[in-house]
Design a protein that fits this description.
This protein is of the alpha+beta class. It has two domains: 87 residues, Ribosomal Protein S8, Chain: A, domain 1 (2-Layer Sandwich), CATH 3.30.1370; 36 residues. The chain has five helices and three strands. A three-stranded antiparallel β-sheet has the order 1-3-2. The protein is elongated and about 65 Å long. It starts with a helix and ends in a 7-residue tail after the last helix.
Length: 125
């Protein structure tokens, strides 16, 4: 029997359903404990080690559909983590600020240079 990628993913999701549900319960507990309504909740990527990498995005898509922005980050000192931010929790200005600081240093400098050229201070808008 030949199996295609979509069918194989569905089969794996069924086989790993208990592990996926356990992971969702752990993420939910972490969000419940740490969510303040502002900023993000950091969830260590080690929490995801019990499920296959193929299914990580499947789980994250469920959270995105439920109203969370989910972003993966890592560095050599702290390791890796996912940041869960409520989509509705950020005001327009906070969202712009968050987006700005997610840019590279060069991109931030280009925006600052444009502000100076135009004589505009975005923070005062």
């Amino acid at each position: 029997m030949v199996v295609g990628p979509k069918e194989l993913k569905r089969i794996i999701e069924q086989e790993d359903k208990p592990k996926i549900e356990q992971l969702e319960a752990k993420i939910d507990a972490c969000l419940k404990e740490k969510f303040t309504g502002q900023g993000g909740v950091y969830v260590g990527s080690g929490l995801f080690s019990d499920i296959r990498p193929l299914l990580v995005e499947t789980v994250l898509e469920k959270y995105r559909a439920a109203g969370w922005d989910v972003k993966y980050d890592s560095d050599q000192r702290e390791g890796s983590w996912y940041t869960f931010t409520a989509k509705a929790s950020l005001s327009g200005k906070e969202k712009v600020r968050q987006d700005f600081f997610s840019l590279s240093w060069d991109e931030q400098e280009a925006i600052r240079e444009m502000e100076r050229y135009l004589g505009v201070d975005v923070d005062k808008c």
